[in-house]
């Protein structure tokens, strides 16, 4: 089971701006070269929501995250995080990239990587000190990786790597978490542990948006869902949005997965490998 | 008194002549700087980028020599004159290559290779032309040393220039250490934190170019890439943190440069580049064989032990 260390900032940080959504996306289009990978996407995420972004390969799920983080140029559209332009206010956002996006043979220990989560706050020329190390260790405890703090990252399993990335984001103590496939290539035990952690963060009032692949777990894990196939098919509470008609519209009618409420044995969406062109 | 004086005085105690000491200290400094900076090029897989910068700089070196002849009537081989030319040509080739990648469908390796062909080819052509202008252009003899390196040609003012540029690199590295570390490991995450990644990238590239151009005289444009990447790959075998990797890589590079210059400047009078590179390669081979954990021998031993344990019973499953 996960142990949860008390967060220094206390719960409810994300709910300080109750009047508006935590994340507001209006008419967002993002492209590689000239071909738009995300087209005219608009949806809001309420504070304290755990949301999945679901869609077929090449639907632009990762691209959407990168576009709203400014890692890819936006062709058009507006992004607001707690009512403000994220380009000017990064402190509220913590990003968990795909595990496969980095070379894990980089010479660093687990603690080194988690400390990177403090670099945004530190600013130029300042090195992480005692306070930052304590925060990093606390985050490592939350993902049950504190025993591995001195371990070289090249020696970690896939699930351990994912938890290190999560700890790095936890150190940021952000209000909005954007996670790209946090369950890709992790075992079932780790997946359960990560889900519990995400729910815990949500219960603290934080907002979490997760690029997700497994249709069968959407109702179990998430409060709301955005169905994406380059454009937004639907977005809202799982109970309203996650219907067979809409899922099939998103996946082009080739869904064999049983959806919640259907009297069919649940099958994982085997057709969708974890990789997606970046 | 210049900072070089105490070193010279120390050397004289051991009956070494001051030219040799200048050369040895300079080559060691060059090796240390390239080794340290090369760690980042190695981790970012920018070896090819470094290779294009160093090859292309030949055109800038010869062009700077020609310009100095046209301005002063005598060609200068001082690093103060040649280094700016090398930087302009090296960076120019790199920027042109990036421009090609941005505007066409040509991939990075092809566009870099194209720039190498154009800049290095023109450099060799211009060098040949300069040599044919004798005796009109005085002092061109030795310009061809920049191809394979001749540390023995190093002067005291060259050494001062190397020391200053080396110190500047070390200070920049120390100031921007955590940004360089994060950007090298995970540029996307660095961007998400709001770090100015374009600025960090430019700074790292500038350091790489500086490290290359100060090493060219000693190692030569053809083999400079080896002094960047070989000590770094050797150091990677022994270390598990970036700081120790950069430090050890600088040490390996420094030792290679020092020994290479001494051997090359001795009665053999062979070009320095090949000797330095062979020493660095020897260190690399030793490291990849012997390093604990990552070395070939250690890994074979681990596999043998695992196979033996498997024969005895089920393996211990690691707690995830």
Would you state the CATH class of chain A?
Answer: Alpha Beta
CATH superfamily of chain B: ABC transporter involved in vitamin B12 uptake, BtuC
What count of structural domains of chain A? 1
Distance between the termini of chain B: 62 Å
Strand order of the largest sheet of chain A: 5-6-7-3-8-9
Tell me the major beta sheet of chain A: 6 strands, mixed
The best one-word shape of chain B is globular
Largest interface: A-B, 37 and 28 residues
Give me the number of helical elements of chain B: 14
Per the CATH scheme, the topology name of chain A is Rossmann fold
Q: Could you state the oligomeric state of the chains shown?
A: heterodimer
Contiguous uncertain segments of 5+ residues of chain A: 1-17, 263-278
- Tell me how many strands of chain B there are: 0
Order of helices and strands of chain B: HHHHHHHHHHHHHH
State the low-pLDDT regions of chain B, or none: none
Topology:
The complex is a heterodimer of chains A (278) and B (320).
Chain A: E1 23-32, E2 35-45, E3 50-54, H1 61-69, E4 74-81, E5 93-96, H2 110-115, H3 119-122, H4 130-142, H5 158-171, E6 176-180, H6 188-203, E7 207-211, H7 218-221, E8 224-229, E9 231-237, H8 238-241, H9 244-250
Parallel strand pairs in A: 3-7, 3-8, 5-6, 6-7
Antiparallel strand pairs in A: 1-2, 1-4, 8-9
Helix pairs in contact in A: 4-5
Chain B: H1 4-13, H2 18-43, H3 47-72, H4 79-103, H5 108-132, H6 145-148, H7 156-175, H8 177-185, H9 187-192, H10 197-219, H11 224-238, H12 242-265, H13 272-290, H14 296-312
Helix pairs in contact in B: 2-7, 2-10, 2-11, 2-12, 3-4, 3-5, 3-10, 3-11, 4-5, 4-10, 7-10, 10-11, 11-12, 11-13, 12-13
